[in-house]
Amino acid sequence: MSTTRLMILGLVRWLQPVHGYYVRRELESWNVEEWAAIAPGSIYHALRKLSQEGLLEEVGTEQVSARPARTSYRVTPAGEQEFQELLRRYWWDYKAPVDPFQVAFSFIWCMPPEEAAAALRHRAARLRAVSGGQAAMVESEFMRANKPVHVAWMFELSVARAELEADWCERMADRIEAGELRGDWEPVGFDERVEAGRIVREAASRSNEK
């Protein structure tokens, strides 16, 4: 919810006073459902919740013919403070993304090697298709004419991540097909796993301190 709060507060702050409809339309043009996991249907709920919390305030309603009334919002002083705190939290902190694929990959030995390799190549192809579409968006006249330059930069980051993961998937498929995936792996005992985990965490902690 924190990312949704930051996104909604930021857009209202930028466009205020603004109707929820325009917030939704702007977010859809940024493809936020793909890279920020913000579903369009959640936007109106978020606007109402932020209003109830005193972070947004309703500044008017507009009725156009038989359409539902549209409420305009703007950011309150409390909302500005919340926005600034969230903005700096996500700029300065790193939080590893949760990827279901990594969970599934943890149990790679439960699949036949040929299926695992095929799945990795399929994933690589899908990632390249996604990155191709995003790269085209970066170069589009619509992007240049209608969006701030930093929006194109965000798409470039998505392209870079997708291409990097696609390359990794293809390398792993190559290694599986070369017979590097052991089928006789056996888990170590509980005590050994605890000790191994401690060593890995300490090594990661030392690396982060450098």
TrEMBL record:
This is PadR family transcriptional regulator. Gene3D superfamilies: Winged helix-like DNA-binding domain superfamily/Winged helix DNA-binding domain. InterPro entries: Tscrpt_reg_PadR_N (IPR005149), WH-like_DNA-bd_sf (IPR036388), WH_DNA-bd_sf (IPR036390). Pfam families: PadR. Residues 8-85 form the Transcription regulator PadR N-terminal domain. The lineage of its organism: Bacteria, Bacillati, Actinomycetota, Actinomycetes, Micromonosporales. It comes from the Bacteria.
